[in-house]
């Protein structure tokens, strides 16, 4: 029996077997989901501890102005900015290492980027600490406790360095196909904040939470160091990675300023929406910024969970595009849009139907009163209207920046959404107050999502936008039915926990049934084996 030889195909056509990739993605997505949920639950516990100790008053408003620094830093340095640049860059470096291991392209990439990044991050942290009074004056003019906000800002400014290092480590590990350590960073982060809240909350007040941000940022780096050390010379078989589309292209070219600039503008524009909310809410009655913060944190949980799959598939899309396999990348993005849209819309249904019960269970204790619950629930319901837009922006932005080439369209779309949010907020705040700010946010991010979806049909990896919009519209109808079912089911009990449990179950069942009846593709594939078994049982 003769030994079978490999097929004589061009190098660019040799693609990995999709089965191992599918198993790897499933395992990585499961681990990421578990740790994402753990981090989110610890984030809720952090917010519960904060609400229990401090409630919603001028002190909490002062801290939440300082909280803007880690919010911007996480978006720019962990979730969007650095990840959009470095994950494709490390993916390309690994492709080149599989073809030409010496000199090591991964080591060359690290040597060319990490020292300069550390210097820039350290300088940025020092500038924030020195300019804290000016930062507070710009973010929240007329804030009653500006002095407290300055103190907290100086403590949280350290995250400009620690978050950047954590984001660099996360991008490097994800590029290597290692997702466990990057997914655990928010577990470590929230543990640090909760620990200092419990130990020092009574003595230091909200400054303890700001110090917790500094500690949590350091823990985010430390928790990834063991995995990074193990990956420093991990072998990557050539069969496990698709070949580069441009074999002679240097990895360093992927990090040129023309590539970084649109990513930075996109990430900053996205986070500036939060800054605009804080600015618009500063003149409102005491506690308004806190109500907005609590509502946003809880309402965004479905969005965070929906994007956990994209965290895993981002390197897959980048490698497929590096190999020129646009069809594989397109199918992956299509599936991500439907799955992420399903998760976020089910969550949004529960948030809209059971907002008072959710806030009651999570926060109504200690200094957080029933009036705070009612105000937060009102804002949270409005925020939920923009959750699908938030998710679509997250999925589509990753597909745009996976191409590792200068793309200004996502940044322009985000700037258009930001302008819409700011303009609508100026007119809505005098009439509706804090809910008007949430409505402006939903309007702006939805416009950005529609623009990115429209542009996706005109790229090299062209999405069938009409088909995608049809699938999303069907999911929207299913979400409306799930919201009605959840609202009706939640009325069976006057106690929040059983009402929320029954309502969430009714929402999930109703959503799945309606989506299947409307023939949403992923639900047809999900129910097909069950349908066949029932048919053969007859």
Summarize the structure in words:
- This protein is an all-alpha fold and 538 residues long.
- The longest helix is centred in the N-terminal third of the chain and has 37 residues, at 18-54.
- The chain contains 25 helices and no strands.
- Helices cover 78% and strands 0% of the residues.
- The protein has helices at 18-54, 58-66, 68-79, 81-99, 105-130, 132-139, 146-156, 159-175, 180-183, 185-204, 207-222, 225-230, 257-281, 288-299, 301-306, 308-322, 326-353, 355-363, 370-383, 387-401, 409-432, 434-456, 465-490, 496-517, 521-537.
- Residues 1-20, 235-255 and 530-538 have low confidence and may be disordered.
Keywords, separated by commas or semicolons:
disordered N terminus, disordered C terminus, 538 residues, mainly alpha, globular
> On the 0-100 scale, what is the average pLDDT?
82
Biggest sheet details: none
Shape: globular
- Runs in which pLDDT lies below 50 for 5 or more consecutive residues are 1-20, 235-255, 530-538
Helix content: over 70%
Continuous helix count: 25
Strand content: under 5%
Q: Could you tell me the radius of gyration in angstroms?
A: 24 Å
Task: Note the run of SSEs as H and E.
Answer: HHHHHHHHHHHHHHHHHHHHHHHHH
